Amino acid sequence: MATNQNANSTEHGGAAGGKPLLSVRDLATYFRVEGGIAKAVDGVSFDVMPGEVLGIVGESGSGKSVTSLSILRLIPDPPGMIERGEMLYEGQDLLKLSYKEMRAIRGNEIAMIFQEPMTSLNPVFTIGMQIIETLRTHNPEMTKQEAFDRAVLRLSQVKIPDAEKRMKDYPHQFSGGMRQRVMIAMALCCNPKLLIADEPTTALDVTTQAQILNLMLELRERREGGSIILITHDLAVVAETCQRVIVMYGGKIQEVGNVDQIFYEPRHPYTQGLLESLPSTQEAKKRLHTIPGNVPFIMDLPTGCKFCTRCDQVMDRCHNEEPPLHQLKSGQLVRCHLAEEDSTGFADAPAMTNVTPP
Amino acid sequence: MSKPLLEIKNLKIGYPVWGGILRHKIGEVKAVDDVSFTLHEGETLGLVGESGCGKSTLAKAVINILKATVPGVRQEGEILFHTEKGPVNLLELSRREMQPRRSEIQMIFQDPFSSLNPRMTVGSMIEAPLRLHTAQTKKERTDRVHWLLERVGLQASQASRYPHEFSGGQRQRIGIARALAVNPRLIVADEPVSALDVSVQAQVVNLLQDLQDEFNLTYLFVAHDLSVVNHISDRIAVMYLGNLIELGEANTVYGQPAHPYSRALISAVPSPDPRKDHSDRVLLEGEIPTPLDKPTGCAFRTRCPIVKDECAASTPPLEQKKSGQVAACPYT
Fold this sequence. Notes:
The complex is a heterodimer of chains A (358) and B (332).
Chain A: E1 22-33, E2 36-48, E3 53-57, H1 64-71, E4 80-89, E5 92-93, H2 99-105, E6 110-113, H3 117-120, H4 127-138, H5 144-157, H6 163-166, H7 176-188, E7 194-198, H8 206-222, E8 227-232, H9 235-241, E9 244-249, E10 252-258, H10 259-264, H11 269-276, H12 316-320, E11 326-328, E12 333-334, E13 343-346
Parallel strand pairs in A: 3-8, 3-9, 6-7, 7-8
Antiparallel strand pairs in A: 1-2, 1-4, 4-5, 9-10, 10-12, 11-12, 11-13
Chain B: E1 4-19, E2 24-40, E3 44-48, H1 55-62, H2 66-69, E4 74-83, E5 86-89, H3 95-98, E6 105-108, H4 122-133, H5 138-151, H6 168-180, E7 186-190, H7 198-215, E8 218-222, H8 226-232, E9 235-240, E10 243-249, H9 250-255, H10 260-268, E11 319-320, E12 326-327
Parallel strand pairs in B: 3-8, 3-9, 6-7, 7-8
Antiparallel strand pairs in B: 1-2, 1-4, 4-5, 9-10, 10-12, 11-12
């Protein structure tokens, strides 16, 4: 049973009950490409509770970024299409909203920050103008002065020195770390309830990364009830910042657990393999444990379990039969036939896929 | 300690800054500022640092491509490469004199997607250095290419394929095969695994270590991922804004960093252990200054938690510390 390690456990909001902020059910996003259909996300279900930091971890092609873009309906159509699913945000199905209604959600209720701050900020407008634009789009009754003052406040909250002066600067006049802070300020300026951060620190230096992650967590504490979905391939970042973790591979959820369970009792061979291949967990200079082979091209995913071609515990059945997402007594969810004996039920949509944090 | 292979002595590299109406040189960025260290045969030296520290510039200087790629670059000091005929200063060699040395010093690049020519087959890319540096027949070269492909974990039959048919990890293996083709003594690896997925990184790291043991290779391993560097390196060198600020055994530098910057850097590395206590993490204030605006005296003084007035006076030299490494700070 997961022990109550984390000193922050009281901040986990929605722990053990409470209504989810966002409920994704059986989301499938496909892309029409030369040669057929690429099933980037193929039946993903999860909840995001108020106040939690949920990590979605996976390597290239796992579907983690496409999942987050689907939530905000930022998938270009064509060639992408959200094939099926339901995304309930405060009772509304985001997939059924009109363009105008969705616009009112983006930036206002659900905001996103991206990996490359330079390409997500408009290079020809000042930072000030961009933040003010966001504020006034969602708060049309706000005056220019009010918006200006609010923008300066947000910039100083993300620790940009001389915030008022820097309102007049352009993105290229900021360093990488500063630009990411600006992105965070912009994303949070309308007090969204959910922040989706897609590899927010991957492009940054280590010391800057530490500052930005620290900032994100501090701001979250102040936002009471504000949740974060952190998408990354970096397991170490997940260990430090997230309370619950979803592991994705081949467009599907393979394991879900709270952070202690995932790092200390991983049940899925893929999760186990990932953790074992990290250099920091191994004795220096000894050969690293590896997962053989490569992530298959999205069009070449195996039938049966998506991981069967690389799994060191594979059985015959894995090639033909895709495992369901088994729910274990500990609350962990594992998409693996090996978990069958400890299974207390299935957690695929439409059932609950929630797991209580430690 | 085994024999020295490469001795860097007081290396200074300045990038020109162009400006003015006539676009003449109006200034210089001190990308590498008086760096000295020795690389020994068979060792792996990890070179770490953040943006603007000069590690990539130093790597490029070692393989001697700066004059050709950066017009107006100023290189001072010595890069002594130990050959059978004695030490040779690479910086003083003409293009012709450098040519035969290139088979001894090879490079693996960071981006597996842009470091391979998309219009050449994999086989011809690996064969190219053989054609340049050896007098082998076509048959001998082809056999060697096949052998190399298999040695790096690919198949000989893949020699006729093009880069786009391979994944990132496989392309990196192709780059390694190419570097290995002419039996180099030194391989400069510039962030060889940063662009790879975690599961593939482990494969490539293992491959690099195996090859090192088999062929007695020396690696200058430039990277920003400290856990990978700690795993693969015998010694670690830390750079900040062009200066070498710490150098020592990998375990010592990683476990007991002496320089305030190294301490901040290493404590900033996230660890995949949710229960690890991070309350002693050093969070630096502010951003790394641009190399154009390098602080006088100790370059780190604008962000150093233990800065003193004296730090602005002069650049501190590397001093021997009790724990074994050298670090450029008199106050730790």
